[in-house]
């Protein structure tokens, strides 16, 4: 591993553009604009999963309202006929909306925790605690030319460069 610490996000971005190594990860105290494009990361699938979870919540809400108010225990509430789900759909809209949002939000939280590998009891992966305050860390996995890479990183604004063995 080669860890390079920076104190400025612009210096970090410029250094990433200059060096020609495979960058494993970047640690930052805040999101850096355009970092995904510079690292050539693929687009996340979280928005698609959010839609799927909302659709699941919508379907379960429709089944729940139909089952509870039409099939299992039909009642005449406020003069509304309860023999048809389609005729009663306006009164079910709040329940359907709330369950759609509920499913989408809760499953998105679980999906985010799984994708970030933030399981309970897991040891944090952050190699330097200063990256949670004011520093930026560039992590490169390489075993060849580490001294040359360290010199290149220092020339391009790295404050501190650490070389660690696997």
UniProtKB/TrEMBL annotation:
<keyword id="KW-0812">Transmembrane</keyword>
<protein>
    <recommendedName>
        <fullName>DUF3341 domain-containing protein</fullName>
    </recommendedName>
</protein>
<dbReference type="InterPro" id="IPR021776">
    <property type="entry name" value="ActD"/>
</dbReference>
<feature type="transmembrane region" description="Helical">
    <location>
        <begin position="89"/>
        <end position="114"/>
    </location>
</feature>
<feature type="transmembrane region" description="Helical">
    <location>
        <begin position="46"/>
        <end position="69"/>
    </location>
</feature>
<dbReference type="Pfam" id="PF11821">
    <property type="entry name" value="ActD"/>
</dbReference>
<keyword id="KW-0472">Membrane</keyword>
<keyword id="KW-1133">Transmembrane helix</keyword>
